[in-house]
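Recap from last week: sequence in, structure out.
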Amino acid sequence: MTSILVVCTGNICRSPMAEGLLRAALQRRLAEDAPVVSSAGTMGLEGYAASPEGVEAAGELGADIHTHRARRLTVPMTEAADLLLCMASDHREIVSGVTPRLAARAFTLKELVRLVEALPEADGEPLAARLAAADAARRAGAVPPSNDDDIADPLGQPLEAYRAIAWELETWIERLVVGLLGPAASAEAAAGGE
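Predicted structure tokens:
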């Protein structure tokens, strides 16, 4: 089964919101075939709930994360994941530093979106193949590096900052899902219309 691990620092703000939003987006597209999505933090505050502001902001966008409990990132978690989706470049560096083979599966959200959008349109290939193509494109320098790979940490900020981050996450996640899976079939085509 395909699995995606979303990584941030404390696993109480960005990664729980991204986990919930990504899970919802993938379930809308793939139903029961959606990959398993989880999250952890490089300095995870083991057992802590998601921040109340994050719960509210994600909930406003249709992602229920009220039962989330933070986890500290472990080597077995990283090795079990098909995709390590990092909220910031420093998280990607930490994950990639665990073992060299993980580097090919570790991307920031924004980096991966730019890479898959530069590839030919997805046409039903497995997630692993799409990620391998994105990594090959990254190593080949097909997409210039960006200084804007990070999702800002809203910890300690008011609800409006969390709403802004949740909206940013939702926007990038919707682009990611299209980049990984291809455009969604129209409702008319899916219903067998003309």
